[in-house]
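Our consortium's second objective concerns turning raw sequence data into structural hypotheses that experimental partners can test. To show how far this objective has progressed, the report includes one record in full. It was chosen at random from the queue rather than selected for favorable results. The single chain below, 260 residues long, was entered without modification.
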Amino acid sequence: MELSSTDPSFEALNKRLNNPAEMEQYRRQYDNYRPALFPRLLGSLLVWCGNVVYGREPSYLKFRAVEIIARVPYHSWEAVIFTLLTIFFSNEKKALELSKLAKFSRLAQDNETMHVIVISQLAAREERAGFVRHSLIPMLFAFFYFWASYILYFLNPKWSYELNYLFESHAFSQYSRFIATREQELREKPVASEFLKWYGREAANQYEFFLSVRNDEIIHRNESIAHIRHHGGQRSIIPLMVGAGILALGALLWAWYGWF
């Protein structure tokens, strides 16, 4: 049996968001959310650097760079979760909470991977890419973003979610502008992608494809804040790790002293 890499409930929500009224209601849930100062500064830096390198206006190659970077926080969160589950494997409540986030992270990674693969194919037909600007620089951005998300999650999980909220908000606005300004052109261009079919999504033309990507980004944005609201009790793991380290060191010293 060949499996696709999508989720039926996610795809159903994505399709509902094609309805302007549904989109407006869904978007407004967290439109006025205000992240903390540090994520705002870091998010503004990421967006500013992206605009300097790729321009303010959306394009195929800018989207390619955005999607190389956009899948990173979900990969980073899964790496963090792997570490935390090793620490909290005996705490069933904590393990369940982390496993739910891991499931979302894996689905979001696959979704963003689909974006970058299909958009890369479209960009190759539409625009000419340079290795340094359109491959090397996005990978360097991604490296920085991975570790920023990873470290932020240990310092304060909320900050990591909020940084992703800001990045996905920017992606959503860029796709919305692209669709609004190039709708007729996109409706006349086909999408032929075996990867898109494998993923489990269909698009009659580029307009439908980019509309679905836009919807993906707003779902990811809202889910980031939903995790804060649903798991508001999450706190930094660092004090717990420091405390565990002190206890372990004390136990070792006691054992050493008792032995001798």
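The partners drew two points from this record. Residues 238-250 have pLDDT under 50 and may be disordered. The chain has eleven helices and no strands. Both points have been shared with the crystallography group to help prioritize constructs.
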